[in-house]
Amino acid sequence: MIVTGAARGLGRDYAGMFAADGASVLLADLDAQSVGDAAAAIFETVPGARVGSVVADVTDPAQTEAMAAAALDAFGRIDVLVNNAGIWGDLERSPLLETAPDYWDLVMAVNLRGPLLCTQAVVGAMREVRWGRIINISSMGAYMPAGVYGVSKLGLNQLTFALATELGPSGITVNAVAPGPIDNEATRLQVPPKGIQKMIDGTAVGRMGTAADLFGMIRFLATEEAGWITGQTFGVNGGFSSRL
Ligand SMILES: NC(=O)c1ccc[n+]([C@@H]2O[C@H](COP(=O)([O-])OP(=O)(O)OC[C@H]3O[C@@H](n4cnc5c(N)ncnc54)[C@H](O)[C@@H]3O)[C@@H](O)[C@H]2O)c1
User: Fold this and answer.
1) Using one digit for the tens of pLDDT, what is the confidence trace for 119-147?
2) Which one, out of 5, 34, 176, 243, has a CA that is 20 to 30 A from the CA of 53?
3) Residue of the nearest CA to atom 21 in ligand 1?
């Protein structure tokens, strides 16, 4: 399997949890140093882990093709793709009317073009065995004013639905998980304390989520049992949507 954006944050956490489950995991990221370090750390902490790393910018088709080739070289198949790589910032300070065209292009390229290119790169191998699971990491930001980030993630939900329709006959499911606010490094760096409290207050359960809170759904969507579930976007958010 491949997890993109796995050099740090949630992608690194998912990769470690899948490896602990016994999956063969290729960590992909454009941050060359950190993605290698992340794979090495999993190898050290998970006995017998089958992990590798590859440097890949998900916005570049040559690099996503090379990423898929590296996974096939290492493991002989690609059964699961987790399209996790994404960029996001201080959502409340990103009004669309002030968004610079270059920032729009960057966010749309990483968050929307990236998952499409990665999917295009892996479907050949999945079609050959008539089995595959593609899991796109969306966001609750898709359902609220969240600047270009929200636009990109709502687009990702549509990409999920449309690709599921195209790939269903090949035995490949495509679903999205839309996390609510997660307590991790990126959130602490990008969201001021006032914003974090607002996020906590917006959940029904009264706390931020963790990578482990998200992983149960992601792991399930990667299983055989989830074969009749496709084209869906699942909110995993501590009841965040119920307070909008
Ligand atoms: N943290 C949250 O609260 C939260 C909430 C909802 C959704 N999400 C989504 O979860 C995903 C991961 O979030 P995170 O908090 O771990 O973010 P993060 O910033 O910690 O990690 C993102 C990773 O993606 C990589 N990346 C960025 N651009 C890339 C590119 N062009 N090619 C390859 N890799 C690239 C970065 O190097 C980094 O390792 C994102 O898609 C984000 O939108 C996060």
Assistant:
1) 999 999 999 999 999 999 999 999 988 99
2) 176
3) 9
CA atoms within 13 A on the CB side of 55: 7
pLDDT (average), residues 69-92: 92
The domain ranges of the chain are 2-182+211-235
Q: What is the mean pLDDT of residues 148-152?
A: 95
CATH architecture designation of domain 2-182+211-235: 3-Layer(aba) Sandwich (3.40)
User: 144: which 2 tokens?
Assistant: 């609220």
Whole-angstrom distance, CA of residue 165 vs CA of residue 228: 12
Q: Looking at 35-44, 79-88, 149-158, 233-242, which range is the least confident one?
A: 233-242
Residue nearest atom 23 of ligand 1, based on CA coordinates:
5
Type of residue found at 226: A
Whole-number Å distance, alpha carbon 84 to ligand 1 midpoint, is 6
User: Mean pLDDT in the chain?
Assistant: 95
- Would you please indicate which residues are annotated as catalytic (active-site) residues? 149
Would you say the CB of residue 209 lies under 6 angstroms from ligand 1?
Answer: no
Full-model pTM: 0.97
Is residue 209 within 8 Å of residue 183, measured between CB atoms?
yes
